[in-house]
Each structure stands twice: as structure tokens, then as C-alpha cells.
Amino acid sequence: MKQGSLTRRNFVTAAALGAVAMGAAAATGCSAPAAKDEAATDAAAAEGESMAAADYQNIYADGANLMPARKAKCPGPRGPVAFEAELQGSVDREEDFDVVVVGAGIGGLMAALKAADMGAKVLVLEKMTRGRGCFECFGAVDAKIQKEAGLEIDRAVLLDEIYRSAYYRIRPEAPRTYVERSGEATDFWQAMLDKGANGFIITPVAEAPATNGMPAMTQFIPSELGFYDSPCLPESAGVRSGLSGIYVCLEMQDIAKSAYPENIDMRFSTPAVQLERGEDGRVTGVVARDADGYFRANAAQGVILATGGYDANPEMMEAWTRPEDYAYSSWWNPGWGTTGDGHMMGLAVGAQMDPIPHPVMNFRWGTPTSFADFRTWNAVYFGILVNGRGQRFVREDGPFQVVSNAQNAQPAFGKNCWYIFDEAMSEGLEDGGFEEFKSKGWLYEGNTAAELAEACGIDAEGLQATLDRYAGFFKNMRDEDFDRDLNITMPFTGGKLYAFTSNSNVLATVGGLCIDANCSVIDMDDEPIPGLFACGNVSGSFFAGNYPRHIPGTSIGRAITFGYVAAESAVNGTIGVGPKLDGNAPALFAYAEGGAVSDEALANSEDLGMWNPYAPIHGSSLDYTPEQLGGNAMACENCHEYRAGGETVADGMKWLAE
Ligand SMILES: Cc1cc2nc3c(=O)[nH]c(=O)nc-3n(C[C@H](O)[C@H](O)[C@H](O)COP(=O)(O)OP(=O)(O)OC[C@H]3O[C@@H](n4cnc5c(N)ncnc54)[C@H](O)[C@@H]3O)c2cc1C
């Protein structure tokens, strides 16, 4: 047995030492003679505890891993981190504002416009030369345009789907705010855009099928909104490029300056580096940095963090997200400014954050350098997706996130997965695609499955078996393995076979600082931190485990809604009341305070056979009702009679094992 590995004996010993130490400390108080003993016992306890912790960590062969989790280097972009735990110089200037918004992405711009529209004097700080903002479509509930189009959304069903998608690991407040206020926020957004020069209009996304061409398996998707009917959008923005959002955000930056020149002061290349807190705990402003050094920006009504996620901070990705969510991924249009500064600024003043690992918004159809090459559209749409064993692993028509997650769960974080398609499915690649992709090593071909498998380096027998089985599903039009809808795809019809590379694509991280219904950031005791608000991807309390792409654009939807609500809360001075933490809830039995089981007690109790008090069925049975004991109403009584030497039901029972 290697040193430090987990054995039952040293685990028990370590726990016992810890208990002895606690008991000793309580018994001796602070008396001087006892202090030496106490120190010795503490040291022994510390050693015992650290031994136990090491035991948990070193469960693999030496050197493989310290923690029982796979690790991976994050290959993603590295942007400029602005958060500073310690300032590198003095703060010599000071300016006063009502509201300071940190980040001029979509959430920050909404917050700034709303606060300004309510009459506040707003400073917007943006670290980069332009604010980010990248999207195609978004969700909302009961916006005017949705009502006019007859799009009805059942609020309770949508809320349930949001909670369900987080496996209920979130509190209800933030999603409820989204559902209740997103329509109003969308109407405000349109009203703001109407002040611009370019005629941006929000309209329903009328395309079918409506989620990036893949069925979304949800009734909500048809309610999605976008900007595709805006006359000003250049052709190249396309419907599905993610670029329409960039133009919308540029327009909003312009509107902020032109429509609210007295209220909004927008500064680029000027990062916030720290939050400032008064003695009463209220966040009073930020320290920011520009070409002349640090300056203090006071915020009488509040600071709104809108710094986005941390997809451009590889170390943070490694620390806070799952390795499979980035290890074999490329990035789609990275923002570079999203380095988690707001997360760190919040944590530094005691904010609570979503539990890790945080979800990553990722999409299928990545190429090694970026997102979808549209010449491969038919191939991806009609083909199948296989791993290195040549086996399918997901319904290929699932929402983007679903397919990504499934690929990332394959061996080596989804490396060596391929779209397999044939000549009939390859339309679109004629325009130079074949040659270009082959020369890059992204595309292989073969006249047979064996030839193709050999070319791209996957298992030939596996691929042949998969193709045969998949072909058989078309007889009854039923995919018996993954329930793909075969009516909207086509079978392989012979001819040449192709394999095109496949990897996931990182768009954003979506876990952040916990917020309440008013978008106040909450602290470790679940109390709102006065003067601190968050919106968009720096905020949390909305997703857990996964970004649910089958629900329309909740990422932009919550960014605009929470930007709007955060601004309103700051200007109105709304602050929620935290929960009563203790109330009359009974204290739980504190196992940790009980004595640890000694080796001697364990040895003695083993003689008791099935009535061993440490056996699972009996443990704590004094507090159980007989009904809880496996339906055997007599169990508890039997046990105690047995201890007294009496007959038990068990004595009369038959045991299959014997
Ligand atoms: C290609 C692509 C397509 C997408 N499509 C969609 C879509 O269709 N629908 C959807 O819902 N979502 C979509 N998303 C996700 C969406 O872009 C984000 O979730 C959204 O932009 C988050 O908004 P935000 O305001 O929180 O942050 P961001 O828009 O990321 O803005 C944060 C800003 O804060 C700035 N900043 C950071 N730190 C500091 C600091 N210390 N001081 C000052 N400024 C700072 C950053 O530079 C940045 O400008 C897409 C993402 C990508 C990459």
C-alpha cells in the first residue's frame, strides 16, 4: 500500500485524534499547565486531519492527480486582467457619480441607459477600446412585439423549465425577475434604440427550424427575438453570425452619448480595478485606472458590475469550470475583456458566488480555429457524429449545447470525433471546401468505411457497424439508439464517404456572483451587499451545471433584464431584506461532536452480527420509527430485546444466502 493512501484504519485514527483534541481543548480551558499538552494534542490532531485530507486526495497512483478529477490545460484566449488585489500606487483623484457601471457590454449598456433615463449621473467604465456584445437572438416574456405577433408564453412553464434545467440548484428569485421583467426591459430597449440613427428593430426570429437550424425540442423557441429585420444590418452580419449584437451594442454606445450627454460619461480603455467599501459595509464606488493612473469614482447610489464572464482567463477557466468544457474546444469570437474581473472584485468584498464548477455556454460545430464554416452545413445537418471507436454517442439533432456536452464527455475530452457523411450530404463543399479542409487536415475521404476510418484514424469495424445499424433504422424510421428524428434527415445513399473534424466552441461562462430579485449582490450570509449590483454573466443565481440552449437566449435575456432592474434598484435605493437565517428551525444532531468510534468498540460490535449498531440499517435507529426501518415494525424492538437476550423475528427468518 503506497504511503498516504486511504485505509479504514488510518481514517478512523485520524478522526479519533481530532475528537480527542476537541475534547481535550474543552476540558482544559486556558490554564497554563494544560497549554503545553493542548498544543501537543492540537499538533497531533492537525497531523491526523491533514493525513485524512491527503488520503482523500491521493487516491490515484503516485503523481497522477492530487484530486480525483481530470485536469486539462485551457487553450483559450488570455485577455488583460484588470482586477488588483493590492493597488500598485496611490489614488490621487476623485470624482462623484450617482451610479458607476463597470463594463460596457450589453448588460452594462442597458444599466447605463436605464439609470440615465431615470435621471442619474452615470459613469460607464470599459476596460477595452469598445464594449463587448455578441449575440444573434434572445428571449423575453410578453414584450410588446411578442404580444403583437401573438406569441404566448406560459410563465409558469417557462420558469419550471429554467429551474429544471438547473436541476433546481438555484433559488427562484432571479429567474422570476427575468420572467416578470424581461418584456418590460425589451420594450425599454426598443425605445432606446428608437433614439438611434440606424433603425434597429427587435422582431421575432421567424426562421424555421428556429434554433440554429437544429430542432430545439422545446415549445419556447418560437418566442425568440432578434434584430434580423433591422434595415441597417450589413449582409455580412447575417442572421446567424453573432454579429448583429455587435452592431446593436455599437448603436447603444452611440445612443448613450448622443441621447444622454448630460447623464452618461462613458470611458473606454479605463478599467475598474477594485471596489471600495465604507465602514458600514456599503459599496461606495470603485478605483479605476486610466492613462494618468488610479482615480476614485464614488457612486452615491450604487455600483453595477457588468463585466461579463471569464472565458478569456485560462487560469480561471481551469479553476472554476469543468475541464471537458474547454480542453478540446476553440473559442467563437472571444471578447478578450472578459477575464473575470467583476467576479474577483465581488469576492474581495465578501460576495457569495455560484458553486463551482460553473457552466460554460458552448456550442457544437466548432472548427479548430473558430465556429461553423457554413459550407459544412449540410454535412453537419444530415451526417452522423462518431467518436474514435466509430460509434455514435448523441442524437445529432439535439440543441447545440447538448451535442457539445455529449462530445466533450467522450474519451480525451471529445478529441477524435468526426461528422461522417456521404456525397449526397456534401452539398456546399464544392466551393473550394473539399480542397481547403483536406489541406488543413480537417477533412478525410474514403470509398469504404474501412478506408475512411483508416484515413481519419478511428476504429474501422466500429464505424462499419455503426453505419449498418444506422441504415437499418430507416426501415421503421426509428432511431433506436438516440431517438433522432429521422424524418428531417436522410440515410446514407452510397458513394464516397467523408469525415469532417468536430470540436466544441466556447462562447461565454455563465456562473457568477449570487444576486437576489433586485439584482443586489448577496454576501456569504445571504444578505444583500448595499450599493452593489450585478447583471449579465458576472451575475449568478440563474444557471447550474449547464447553459440551457433549448430555452431562448436567456443569456442576453437576463443581461438586458438584470441591467435594467439593477439600474432601477440602484436609483430607487431598493434593497432586499435577507432571509432570517436561523429562525426556529431545529438544530441538527451534530455527529461531529460525538466521540469517534474506537477500534475496540468496532471489534466488539462485530460480534453482534446483523444487529451491529454500526450497520446501516440500525444506525441511529433509536430515533427512527419502526416503519422507517425497512417496513419491519418489530425491528427496533427486536434489536433491543436481542441485546437483552430475547428471541427476535430474525431468529425465525429464512435467509436466501444460506
Ligand atoms: C459569438 C457569440 C454569439 C452569441 N450569441 C448569443 C445569442 O444569440 N444569444 C444569447 O443569449 N447569448 C449569446 N452569446 C452570449 C452573450 O454574448 C453573452 O452572454 C453576453 O454578451 C453577456 O453580456 P454581459 O453584459 O454580461 O457581458 P459582455 O457583453 O461580455 O460585456 C462585458 C464587458 O465588461 C468589460 N470589462 C470586463 N472587466 C472590466 C473591468 N475591470 N473594467 C471595465 N470593463 C470591464 C469587458 O471588456 C466587456 O466589454 C453569444 C456569445 C458569443 C461569443
From TrEMBL:
Requisite cofactors: FAD
Domain FAD-dependent oxidoreductase 2 FAD-binding residues, every copy: 98-548
Biological process per Gene Ontology, one example term: steroid metabolic process
Entries under Gene3D superfamilies matching the protein: FAD/NAD(P)-binding domain, Succinate dehydrogenase/fumarate reductase flavoprotein, catalytic domain
Origin superkingdom: Bacteria
UniProt KW keywords: FAD, Flavoprotein, Oxidoreductase, Signal
Residues annotated as signal peptide: 1-26
GO molecular function, one term: steroid dehydrogenase activity, acting on the CH-CH group of donors
PROSITE patterns to which the protein is assigned, alphabetical: PROKAR_LIPOPROTEIN, TAT
InterPro entries in UniProt: FAD-dep_OxRdtase_2_FAD-bd, FAD-oxidoreductase_2, FAD/NAD-bd_sf, Succ_DH/fumarate_Rdtase_cat_sf, TAT_signal
PANTHER family hit by this protein: 3-OXOSTEROID 1-DEHYDROGENASE, FUMARATE REDUCTASE
Protein name: Succinate dehydrogenase/fumarate reductase flavoprotein subunit
